[in-house]
Amino acid sequence: MLGYASLKAPAKINLILDVLDKRDDGFHNIRSVMQTVSVYDYIVINAVESRRRKTLPKISINCSDVSIPSDKRNIVYKVCSAYLNAAGSLPFKEINIRIYKNIPSGAGLAGGSTNGAAVLKAINSFCDNYFSTEDLYKIGSSVGADIPFCIRGGTCLCEGIGEKITPLRSLPECKLLIVKPNISISTAESYKKFDELEHSKISDFDDFMRGLEDSNLTMISRNISNSLENVTDECVIADLKRDMIESGALGSIMTGSGSAVFGIFPDKKSADMCAEKYHKTQAFCQVCSPVNNGIQAF
Q1: Taking a C-beta distance cutoff of 8 angstroms, is the pair 168, 157 a contact?
Q2: Predicted pLDDT at 38
Q3: What is the pLDDT of residue 65?
Q4: Per CATH, domain 3-167 is 1.20.1640.10
Q5: pLDDT at position 200 over 80
Q6: Which of 9, 54, 67, 129 would you call most buried, defined as having the most Cβ atoms within 10 angstroms of its Cβ?
């Protein structure tokens, strides 16, 4: 046995998301403040040693969510392939990956990307940290735009397609209620619709950043926003946001391309009271906290 790792991979939310323009490569430039939260997938990885190979080892993926593909379509498979392409060879004959899912898919919570980040970090550690963190960002961004942030975690300004990361002051103490309704939203379809619209400025990024710098939770919450809400015609998104505000949230928006909505609450009691409405009616509901880390061992 060459390597073994057991990792917990946190979900992310977009506290503010501005989609700026479409690039020549088909991706979009963004400006977003992302935050990791205490909702985790758990990844267990075994790598079996071999002489260095220039071909991809046998990759076995076992996921607790049977709806998620366990073949070449899975992001962790793509990450292994990207690492091989960057390194030129790998000293494994097998890589066995077990994924225990808690983060819902189709939610805008980076469930796939954080799994990819975990596997990327694990393989690099098995290879004696052959690549620097910046190198891993580049490898990860070739597979998924959120992977670099998921490696870093915490509270960060993410620019470019998400690979340009600037750590920021941590989000003040608060509770977050995340609810995924009984729908999923296609990221590709959301961006396609976004490109078809005439856009106007919807965020006050400067006020948001001032609130973060001053650790002013009320100011932060009043200025959270998401460009992609403009292209979401699902009434349940607006209903969840309105209901969270009426239930004591200081602010509420959809995260990423959706469909999950989160609310920022000043304390656990108010978040728990709001959550009681959704446990039996929505696909996912969890009260959690902001965390200052990305991938970690458990």
Answers
A1: yes
A2: 98
A3: 95
A4: no
A5: no
A6: 9
